[in-house]
Structure formats: C-alpha cells, structure tokens
Automatic annotation (TrEMBL):
Name of the protein: Formate dehydrogenase subunit alpha
Keyword vocabulary terms for this entry: 4Fe-4S, Iron, Iron-sulfur, Metal-binding, Oxidoreductase, Repeat
Protein origin, superkingdom: Bacteria
Domain 4Fe-4S Mo/W bis-MGD-type residues, every copy: 8-63
GO CC, one annotated term: membrane
Species assigned in the record: Limnohabitans radicicola
GO molecular function annotation: 4 iron, 4 sulfur cluster binding; formate dehydrogenase (NAD+) activity; metal ion binding; molybdopterin cofactor binding; NADH dehydrogenase activity
BP term (GO), one: respiratory electron transport chain
The family this protein is said to belong to: In the C-terminal section; belongs to the prokaryotic molybdopterin-containing oxidoreductase family.
Positions spanned in the full protein: 217 to 928 of 928
C-alpha cells in the first residue's frame, strides 16, 4: 500500500531462506525493511515465495539478542527450560563485548591446553555467507587445531554428496533447476518442492504446462503431484527396490545408451549383473508400485529426448541415503541422461548457502573445494597457504560430535568445548533428548546467533550476531550460482557482523587475523577463499560478483561460467562416471506392535527449519501458528481420531503433543510432523541411526505410536 516516495532506500540482495537463491530488493524506511520485491535473478526472474516476500520482519523481532550474554554463576544448564517460559534474565546477564569475547575464548584455550585440540569442535552455518563459512572452518582448523568442524549439510544432503563425489567426482548439481524447461520428463523423488523450493516448483509447473511429464516418486503425495504425469507413492524406505527395478527394465529391454557407457562409464557390467534379480514383479511386492507402472516409467525416462532427476531429503535422510543416490546416478548414466540441457542430476539444496558452506570447507573431512584432509598434497598446500600445521585426521561429524560430548572422561577425543555459529542442534539433531543432554554437558559452549535459540539457552556465552539483511557477503545457491547479498540495515543494539566476531575469537586464540576493508574485510576474505578454490571459482573475482551472479565452474575472467557440466567428461580421476550397485537395506528401526506407525519428518511452506526465523515473522506465523501432524483420513478413522483434535505421538525416545490435520497425501500407516515447532519438537521422536557413508541421520523413518492426547 505504499508508494515509492515512502521508501528511504532500496538495497539489492538475495533471499535468506532456501537454496533456490531468489534475488530480492529490500525496501527500507526508517531503518526497517518494510517490503521485499523480487528481482531479475537467474533462478527467479522476479518471482518470490511467501517466505521471501513476507517473511523478512523476523529481523525486527523484539526477541533479537542485542547485547552479549553471560550465563549467571550457578545457573544449571537445564534442558527442561527449553520448553518452559523462563525469562532469559534468570539465566543470563548482559556483558560488554570485551568481557564476553574473553569469557568466550579463554575456556576454549584452556580446554585445548589441558585436553588437546580434539576436545574442541565448531558448528558453522549454512545460513551465513561463503566468507563466514570459510573463516569459521579456518578458525577451527588453524585455531582449535583439528578438523572437528561441520554444519547442517550433515543433516540434509551429506549422503547425496558422498554418492556424487564417489560417482561423478562433484557434489554439486549437474544442471540448474530451470533446465526442467528443456526436459521431456523429470523425476521428482523424495522432494516436496512446492513447500521447500517454491520458486523452483513454479518452474516445474510451468514446464509441465508446456508438456514436460513430471514423475513424482514419494511416499507422501504432495502438491506437485497435481501436476504429475505419473505419481508413484512407493512404500517409505523402499527407494532402492523401486530404482533397481527401473534399472532392471532398462537393462533387460536394451534401453541403455551403450555408446555413453562404453566411452564414459566404469563398472557397467557389475551394475547390469547386479540389477538382474530386481525384477519389477519381485520389487513391486517390496515397494508397492505395480510392475507395469515401474516398466512404463523406466521406459519413458530412458527413451525421453532429455530427462532430469531432482531429489530432496526423502532420498538422502535414510541409513541407505547414499545407496539411494547411487541408484539415481546409475539411472542417469546408463541412459546417457546427463551432460546435456534438460538432463542430469539435481539434489535440491535446502539452506540458502548449504552449497557454498560445503564448498568453503565447512565439513570435517575436506578443506575448501572438497580437497580431502587425508590427502597429503592437499594438506601440504593448505599448510603453506595458511602458514600453520594441520591435522591430517578427518574430524567428527554433527551427530558424532554430540556422541563425543557424552563420551566418558577417559576418551581422549571427548568433546568438551564448542563454538556454534547460527545452527540450532538442540532442535535440528535427531533424538533431541540425547542431543540436548550432550550440549548441556559441555564444559564450555559459545553460541553466536540472532535469537536465543534452544541451543543458545544451553550456552555459557551468547554472542549477538547479524541477520542476513544486516551484512554483506556472498552465497552459492542450489544451481552453483554465486550471488551477492548486501547490507540493507544495521544490526540492532550491540549486535555485530559475524565476520567481525569470528575474527575477534581468532585473535584471542593467538591468530593474527585482521581482514581489512568494508564490512569487516569481506572482500578480502572472499579473495583469499577464491585462491583456495581456483578450479571452481578462480574466474569470479569480487568486482565481477558485485556486478552480477556467476555460476561456477568459472576458471578465468573471460569464462562465462557453466550452468551445465559433464558435457564430455566427469571430474573424476579418469574422467569417467563410476557406477556403484546398491542392495536393499531396511531402516534402522522397524515398526512393531508397540510402535506401529512410521514417522516421516519434514518441512512446510511457511516455516523454515527449526522455526527460529519464520516463527518470528508476523505473516508466516499468522498463517501457520501451531504445530500440526498430518495423517491420512482412513488411518485417522482406524485409530478413532478426528481432524483438529490433539494427539500424542510417542517413539522409543520421547513423545510430543500436537494438533492433527487430515492429509490424504500422507500414506496409510504413517504420520508426518514438521520439525519447526519447539513445543512439539519432531526430533524428540527421531532416531539417530546414521548412513555409514554420509553420516546423515535417518530423519525419514522411525517407529511411533499415535493416540488421542486426552486418552493418553
Ligand atoms: Fe526465498 Fe526460496 Fe522462496 Fe525464493 S523460493 S523466495 S529463495 S524461500
């Protein structure tokens, strides 16, 4: 309702929510963002979803932390407080930056001296900039002295990345989302793009209208199913059965692209032999999809002129997540559906910068650009580059670090001190009872965030950080496009840019870091990071990025960037794709008489991840104010439950109470709960079993019991 005259200024930036990476213009009046416009970006062309358009006032929430906070002497780290309504003043007192930074860092130094570098760990954030991710991992590696650094990629696509690095030599997407316009057929598997990548979903719907056939494969039928040519609602946990049966059809009906396989793939014979037993008839019994449908879809995919596969966490968050993705790589490879427009493999990245944070080395087994810490030549290079000695042992991953925090005193790798920047493991980790106790048991916890998250409640020192629109930095979206976010408003009170805080901690750990220039030296940090990533981002200097988005790989100033990769070779050692057969592995926890239903967790359109931002965004909170579980009407009828009533959902690890909503897209025998609500935290219920390769937890499958809350 406001004319342009009522805006003080407009600032071009990027949406801070999902990995689609829509470009935005923030409209500022009286130092507040009063509205957001979609800008012409490669991923969105002016489009925005409800979060990007109406979700930005979280930054002006009265809940923002505006002063450094110190835990009061004698106040225990009580995990029960997380669900109560305690006043923060009962737990923390305000402090100056000087005092807080000293109190944050001195105990870290002491623990390192007493117990060695591996007694410390750090979680960085996929919601910050590339520069913050790069500097944070550099701090852990060179200041803490180990590779105990990770972030939420471990909870979303770690298994996809493991399979992709093994198979095609790169963890990123091969084709951008908007290539769906060039595809005859797209497979959308284990993904609810309308809720989680809404603008990406809008391109899929546009393509469908122009004749692209969408094949939705998912245990939950979500909104995109309305646009699908075929919907395969397979039984949860049976991805490999369905995909191997498709491979079987393609192999036995001679639909393989033999030229492609001869010239560009390894271990073809093993794969073909392996899938021989996975007949559609046999696998139909396992996955619940009729054999004829499996045949029809396999033929359509193999014979399409161009076909693309896009997937989400329904694929990755299983103990067989890596195997699921191995099957997808095999499908694309044996049919030659890769390396051309409208083909390829696209793991839809969740957080706005999970691609960039991973690229920047915010992972325990790799330096920037996926160079393995165990590779001597990579270690030598970074030792020289950073002028320090580095640990050649991979660090622990997110869930492993939580286990290590609860390890016995005698464990030489017991984690005792942590620095957590912008992540909320007290909500996002599986089996929260365990994770929260692990965080509470730390001798020293420093949390840097914009709100008193559930994790911050357990901290010794809380450092008030900046929200995305309050700082300048770059992010890399799901398409590998690097984009510039610019400061639109100042952080509130004494809150500081994250890049400044990281450098302050580093200086107190003995590192002589003084990045210079505007916004805490962000351009200088970027240029240092770019040197470490010459093979992907060497051609994208700060000035170029300031002028517009660039998609890597881009190795020189005149390289326009490459939205589509793998035209004629893969970035593996021999340039060929490696096919890896997968066998059936069941979920780590099965249903039984006591816990007869499957719990599927996920997200919803209005709320982002652990809810710390979106539940403080007025419009989004008004749209979805309360936690709800979804069940099929027939399942509700069987259990004598009514829509709208409160239910109690219990697993072997905990229980939650929340309202029930009817959703006939949720399969029979299952309940779906979004994990954004602290008052009914879905991860109280989930199981911490890990995929052995990606170390990702099995968020998509555990056993629960559902009953009326009043009867319980
Ligand atoms: Fe933001 Fe993603 Fe929505 Fe685009 S689709 S506006 S990036 S949340």
């Amino acid at each position: 309702h406001m004319g342009p005259q009522s805006v003080d200024r407009e600032v071009d930036s990027v949406c801070p929510f999902c990995g689609v990476g829509c470009l935005v213009t923030f409209q500022v009046r009286d130092e507040k963002i009063i509205s957001v416009k979609g800008r012409e970006g490669p991923a969105n062309e002016g489009r925005l979803c409800v979060k990007g358009r109406f979700g930005m006032d979280y930054i002006h929430s009265p809940d923002r932390i505006t002063r450094p906070l110190i835990r009061k002497a004698g106040v225990a780290k009580d995990v029960a407080l997380l669900e109560g309504h305690t006043d923060w003043r009962d737990v923390f007192r305000e402090a100056t930056w000087e005092e807080a930074l000293d109190l944050a860092t001195l105990p870290l130094n002491r623990l390192r001296q007493l117990h060695g570098p591996k007694s410390l760990a750090g979680f960085g954030s996929a919601k910050g900039s590339n520069e913050e991710a790069y500097l944070f991992q550099k701090l852990v590696r060179t200041g803490f002295g180990s590779n105990n650094v990770d972030h939420c990629t471990r909870l979303c696509h770690a298994s996809s990345v493991a399979a992709l690095l093994e198979g095609v030599g790169s963890g990123a997407v091969s084709n951008p989302v908007r290539d769906v316009a060039h595809a005859d057929l797209i497979i959308v598997i284990g993904s609810n793009p309308t809720a989680n990548h809404p603008v990406a979903a809008s391109w899929m719907k546009n393509a469908a209208r122009r004749g692209t056939r969408i094949v939705l494969m998912d245990p939950r039928i979500t909104d995109i199913g309305r646009h699908a040519w075929r919907t395969l609602q397979f039984k949860a946990d049976t991805d490999v059965a369905l995909l191997n049966a498709m491979l079987h059809v393609i192999v036995t009906e001679n639909l393989c692209d033999e030229t492609f396989l001869r010239e560009r793939a390894d271990h073809v014979a093993e794969l073909k032999a392996h899938v021989r037993d996975y007949t559609p008839e046999a696998m139909s019994v396992v996955c619940g999809i009729p054999a004829d449908t499996i045949r029809e879809v396999a033929r359509a995919y193999a014979t399409a002129k161009a076909a693309m596969i896009l997937w989400g966490m329904g694929v990755s968050q299983h103990v067989h997540g890596t195997d699921n993705v191995r099957c997808l790589i095999a499908l694309a490879s044996i049919t030659g559906q890769i390396g051309r427009p409208g083909t390829g493999l696209h793991p839809l990245r969740g957080q706005n910068n999970v691609q960039g944070a991973s690229d920047a080395g915010l992972i325990p087994m790799m330096y920037p650009n996926y160079q393995r810490v165990s590779d001597k030549s990579a270690q030598d290079w970074f030792e020289k580059f950073w002028d320090t000695k580095l640990d050649d042992q991979p660090g622990y991953t997110v869930v492993e670090i939580m286990h290590k925090a609860l390890a016995p005193e005698s464990d030489p790798h017991k984690v005792r001190g942590m620095y957590i920047l912008g992540e909320n493991p007290a909500m996002s980790d599986p089996d929260l009872h365990h994770a929260r106790h692990a965080l509470a048991s730390l001798q020293h916890l420093v949390v840097q965030d914009i709100f008193l998250t559930e994790t911050a409640w357990l901290a010794d020192v809380v450092l008030p950080a900046s929200a995305w629109p309050e700082k300048t930095g770059t992010v890399s979206n799901t398409d590998r496009t690097v984009q510039m976010g610019r400061q639109a408003v100042l952080p509130p009170g004494d809150a500081k840019p994250d890049l400044w805080i990281i450098q302050q901690i580093a200086q107190r750990m003995g590192l002589n870091w003084h990045y210079v220039g505007a916004h805490e030296g962000v351009a200088q940090v970027y240029e240092e990071m770019r040197q470490a990533m010459a093979l992907t981002m060497g051609g994208i200097d700060w000035a170029r990025l300031n002028a517009g988005s660039v998609t890597y790989p881009c190795v020189s100033a005149d390289d326009p960037g490459q939205p589509i990769v793998f035209h004629d070779h893969f970035p593996t050692q021999d340039g060929r794709v490696r096919l890896v057969p997968a066998s059936l592995i069941a979920a780590a926890e099965q249903t039984d008489a006591d816990y007869p239903l499957v719990l599927i967790t996920g997200r919803q359109l209005e709320h982002w991840h652990t809810g710390s931002m979106t539940r403080r965004a007025t419009v989004l909170d008004a749209l979805e104010p309360a936690a709800t579980a979804c069940m099929h009407g027939a399942e509700m009828g069987r259990l004598g439950l009514q829509p709208g009533q409160r239910i109690r959902v219990a697993s072997r690890r905990g229980h939650v109470e929340l309202a029930l909503r009817q959703d006939n897209g949720t399969p029979l025998g299952a309940v779906f709960i979004p994990f954004a609500y602290v008052e009914a935290a879905a991860n109280e219920l989930t199981h911490a079993a890990l995929d052995p390769f990606g170390k990702i937890p099995e968020f998509k499958y555990c056993a629960v019991r559902v009953e009326s809350a009043t009867a319980a």
